[in-house]
């Protein structure tokens, strides 16, 4: 109401504008998230399956069995993550497992995967945008995962973004993704977008997919 000087008609128009902008961003952010998720997944699968990383994985036989979960293969960076990814994935992995089990239990009897074990892809689908932001580098040198995130970028995640040739430390990308994550939360919670620089955030999304799209 403050932005509309207590004019009810203008306030309703502004609310409708906010809904339209949120809807437009929802589509853009959804595509951006999936593109980023799949790119990072591919890079981490390759990295995790490398013999050097497999030596840093706890053998599956020594882990407690997980009911209705497909045993991880070498490329499975969620259930069979090598160091330092394992420590970064502990909490997201547990959450994804719980949610995947719940999703499995809700499948109707006619579902083709009703009795199928939970797979890497089932878990990947449960990850939120925020999980992937925390796999990117951070400029906060005091962050407890600063070194692990930096190492992961250098060894693996940068391969997911080969077009970021001018961002060797990944900080530009991480900053853009962080802004988009904040925007996604605002959009999802139907918060006001009046102060959001829509053009700049749309550019962030395009550059996350490929910088050439903004030229």
From TrEMBL:
Residues 91-105 have a biased composition (Basic and acidic residues). Residues 90-117 are annotated as: Disordered. This is Abi-like protein. It comes from Pleodorina starrii.
